[in-house]
Write a structure and sequence with these properties.
Chain B: It holds the Pfam family DLH. The complex is a heterodimer of chains A (442) and B (242). Chain A is an alpha+beta fold. Chain A has 12 helices and 21 strands. Chain A has 2 domains: 102 residues, Rieske [2Fe-2S] iron-sulphur domain (Rieske Iron-sulfur Protein), CATH 2.102.10; 268 residues, Naphthalene 1,2-dioxygenase Alpha Subunit, Chain A, domain 1. Classes of the chains: A alpha+beta (442), B alpha/beta (242). The complex binds FE2/S2 (inorganic) cluster and fe (ii) ion (FE2).
């Protein structure tokens, strides 16, 4: 055990020292031990529709360019000129076959190769012209592009472990391949990045923090919220390598979003019927339950089935984080269903919506209060520790995350926590597919 | 465009268009010394070769582009779209004689010439194409060359619905396209700089035109750069790509 996490197996109790939220030394060792040795999400292939499209991103503090080259191949480059460092792309997105540095004018193509150098007589004929630098590893899983700065890391699929199955549950919801909509929600919070990772699958705070959102939904449904039967039958599940999910029962997704017309309900039912034929009932039943997935360390996918947000958390300082969030949609859906998604993206998840600002407020007050850590050094994350049934209001998912954090930052494994067998609903499998059926368009 | 560069008087000479429209038309040329950045074909608006070519070609020369300019409008005769495409390939041939490959060529067209530039972008793969105030073509095909369309919203030949339709149609193209429209101006807005909106539009049009070429027209490699290609330490190989 360390100064950072204290586990009492008897009581039982699991506590995290608030120092980890404020200490610059902890922040520095997270950068090194976690962010230099994990697979980190950069962006989605569908954000780059045409050859030479690019987007710029910050990943673990590094400015990166995610680009589709002239031949259509996806690559990731460090957004820094190999000459003396000026940023090559200063726009969040664009299309360019040649990236020209505005400082001295060196240019490169979207495959990272050097193209031209002004007044080149100033160099010897044997001068080796540098191309663009890139992260040690780039891999993608069904359109989700990740990088790793660790050349020796395991391959992405191995790293994703059980999280892969939950990405599949999201990505199988379109018959033509899920797509990221153009545009990014960007916001920040004066809070440690780990607080948002915890919050992103905190099933315990929904009713208390998000009253405002739930009241709006209730009003849209004529004043009363029909809480679907079986909504409590949910689970927090350890997916390995620090990843975890809270997965809802089939009823859970019915709680969210404004009401639909009969025609849209019908369309949705038909869409799901077609998916049943393709993937089987067990899989599509599971698909119909909401899920909040955190892929360690900082990628969040929240799928309420009627809306999916992909959220990347960027630690900036011990008490400051930045969020980029995108909307993942099935492009083969009709207008009303699409509208319901857009509405939820804005009213629930949007930085000015009826839910995210409440989360941000909660996290910022946590962070402000950590100045009193001498008087109050510990945060409690024990919920559900005493039981083998990990329902989603437990804090098992967070403890899973923290165990991995501890292993990487402190170099020591904490005692595991037994989880009882999952009800059948949570383990249903997809019918075997031909490779083509699950290979997405890009 | 009027900073302290010496103005180059384009050389104008008749050129027989041996295929395409098979006319003999005056073609203006500016050739540059050293290793120019790239080459451009300027397709003038109807009757505007004398009025506009020198200005546009000098603007391009300042950015390092050699150019040829021509007015392909039919005058009193008739010229088919097929003929026009043939005419464009004659012009590419002229640039080819100067050693320019198609990816090193940009097309810039105005009015009638803008329409031709859009036709050509659907037919040929060149570095980049820009159309300024082109009368819209019905059922435009997807383009093969990255194409930028710049339209005045008051242009009766390019009404907003038609522009929206074009935009949607071009989305299926395998290459990047962009359409920009300017409020309060019609077609020939490049040349009326006294009115504020026209001034702003003509400034923006030129800026975007040059940038569109800069980002896409392949540069001609110098002898040193060619030698350097064998000494390139490229980050491009290996794990950097999916
Ligand atoms: S820093 Fe990019 S060319 Fe000098
Ligand atoms: Fe929340």
């Amino acid at each position: 055990m360390s100064d950072y996490i204290e586990v009492d197996q008897e009581m039982p109790r699991f506590r995290v020292n608030r120092k980890v939220m404020t200490d610059p030394a902890v922040f520095a060792s997270e950068r090194e031990q976690i962010f230099n040795h994990s697979w980190l999400y950069v962006g989605h292939e569908t954000e780059l529709a045409k050859p030479n499209d690019y987007v710029t991103r910050t990943v673990a503090g590094r400015p990166l360019i995610l680009a589709r080259d002239a031949k259509g191949k996806i690559g990731v480059w460090v957004n820094s000129c190999p000459h003396r460092g000026a940023m090559l792309c200063r726009d969040p997105k664009g299309n360019a076959r040649f990236l020209t540095c505005f400082y001295h004018g060196w240019s490169f193509n979207t495959s990272g190769e050097p193209v031209s150098v002004p007044a080149e007589e100033g160099y010897s004929a044997d001068f080796e012209r540098p191309g663009l630098a890139s992260p040690a590893k780039v891999e993608s899983y069904r359109g989700f592009v990740f990088v790793s700065f660790d050349p020796d890391i395991v391959d992405l699929t191995t790293y994703l472990a059980g999280a892969k199955e939950y990405l599949d549950l999201v990505l199988d919801q379109s018959e033509v391949g899920m797509e990221i909509l153009p545009g990014t929600h960007e916001y920040s919070a004066k809070a440690n990045w780990k607080l948002l990772a915890e919050n992103s699958y905190d099933g315990y705070h929904l009713l208390s923090t998000h009253q405002r959102y739930l009241a709006m939904i209730a009003a849209a449904h004529g004043g009363k919220l029909d809480v679907p039967k079986g909504i409590d039958d949910t689970r927090a599940i350890n997916l390995g390598n620090g990843h975890a999910v809270i997965a809802g029962s089939p009823a859970s997704s019915g709680l969210f979003g404004r009401p639909l017309s009969e025609a849209a309900k019908q369309e949705k039912a038909e869409r799901f019927q077609r998916l049943r034929e393709k993937f089987g009932d067990a899989w599509v039943d599971r698909m119909g339950g909401a899920r909040n997935l955190v892929i360690f360390p900082n990628l969040v996918v929240i799928d309420l089935v009627m809306g999916v947000v992909v959220r990347k958390i960027e630690p900036v300082a011990p008490d400051y984080l930045e969020v980029s969030a995108w909307h993942l949609v099935p492009p083969d859906e009709g207008e009303e269903l699409h509208k319901q998604r857009l509405d939820n993206f804005l009213t629930f998840w949007g930085p000015g919506g009826l839910a995210s600002p409440d989360d941000v407020e909660a996290l910022e007050t946590c962070q402000r209060s950590y100045t009193a850590q001498r008087e109050l050094p510990w945060s409690d994350i024990s919920r559900g520790l005493h039981s083998e049934v990990k329902e989603m209001g437990s804090e098992y998912q967070m403890r899973t995350w923290w165990r991995r954090w501890h292993e990487l930052v402190v170099g020591e494994a904490l005692p595991e926590e037994p989880q009882g067998p999952l009800p059948d609903f949570f383990v249903g499998q997809r019918l075997p597919q031909t490779a083509a059926a699950t290979a997405d368009a890009n | 465009m009027d900073i302290a560069f010496p103005r180059i008087e384009p050389a104008v000479a008749p050129v027989p268009f041996t295929y395409g429209s098979r006319r003999t038309l005056p073609v203006a040329r500016i050739e540059l010394g050293g290793v120019p950045r790239g080459a451009a074909i300027v397709l003038c608006a109807a009757g505007a070769l004398e009025r506009d070519a020198g200005e546009v070609m000098n603007g391009l020369a300042e950015k390092g582009y050699e150019s040829v300019a021509v007015d392909l409008s039919p005058g009193t005769g008739a010229v088919s779209d097929r003929d026009l495409l043939g005419d464009v390939s004659v012009l590419m041939g002229l640039l080819g004689e100067r050693g320019w490959s198609s990816e090193q060529v940009g097309l810039v067209g105005y009015g009638f010439g803008g329409r031709t530039a859009l036709l050509a972008a659907a037919e040929f793969e060149v570095g980049a194409a820009v159309s300024v105030g082109a009368p819209l073509i019905r059922a435009t095909r997807p383009v093969k060359t990255p194409w930028l369309g710049l339209f005045g919203r008051q242009d009766p030949a390019a009404p907003p619905e038609a522009v929206a339709c074009l935009r949607a149609r071009l989305r299926d193209s395998p290459v990047h396209t962009e359409v920009v429209t300017y409020p309060g101006v019609a077609r020939d807005f490049r040349f009326d700089a006294r009115e504020a909106q026209a001034h702003a539009a003509s400034f923006d049009v030129w800026q975007r035109t040059v940038e569109w070429l800069e980002l896409r027209v392949a540069p001609r490699l110098t002898a040193v750069a060619q030698k350097w290609q064998t000494h390139t330490a490229s980050g491009a190989a290996g794990p950097s790509r999916v």
